[in-house]
Amino acid sequence: MVLGGSIPPYANLAKKKKEREQLTAKLLEAVNKIQETGCVVKDLDEGLVDFPSLLDGREVYLCWKLGEQRIGYWHGIDEGFAGRKPLDDPKSEEPPPGGTLIQ
């Protein structure tokens, strides 16, 4: 069958599909290994990972985002990323600035 005057490279497409499936499997395996430790991968695109913890006797998530030098924020279990607060001031109700990025 001819599409638009050319023959699709089926062998190349099949190879790319297999590579994509293998990479997807590796990614899922890596995420599962992280989550088996108790950490929660929240967003792969943003690189968000939460770490269950206790802060002043309260169950919270310590929160890290790709590019931050250290875990410097926390949020309540039901708050999510928008509710992040700096660890150096756990009573703060103000969300943190963008965070410190690795240069």
Describe this structure in words.
A five-stranded antiparallel sheet has the order 1-2-3-4-5. It has one helix at 10-36; strands at 40-43, 48-55, 58-65, 73-76, 85-86. The protein contains one helix and five strands, in the order H-E-E-E-E-E. The chain folds into two domains: 7-37; 43-86, no CATH class. By secondary structure, it is of the alpha+beta class. Residues 94-103 have low confidence and may be disordered. The chain is 26% helix and 25% strand.
Percent helix, as a range, is 25-40%
Class inferred from helices and paired strands: alpha+beta
Task: Estimate the mean pLDDT confidence.
Answer: 83
Strand order of the largest sheet: 1-2-3-4-5
Query: How many strands in all?
Result: 5
As for the number of domains, it is: 2
Shape: elongated
Continuous helix count: 1
Range of strand content:
25-35%
Distance between the termini: 53 Å
Q: In angstroms, what is the radius of gyration?
A: 21 Å
Order of helices and strands: HEEEEE
Outline the biggest β-sheet: 5 strands, antiparallel
Low-confidence stretches: 94-103
What would the keywords be for this entry?
26% helix; 5-stranded antiparallel sheet; 103 residues
Write the topology of this structure.
Elements: H1 10-36, E1 40-43, E2 48-55, E3 58-65, E4 73-76, E5 85-86
Antiparallel strand pairs: 1-2, 2-3, 3-4, 4-5
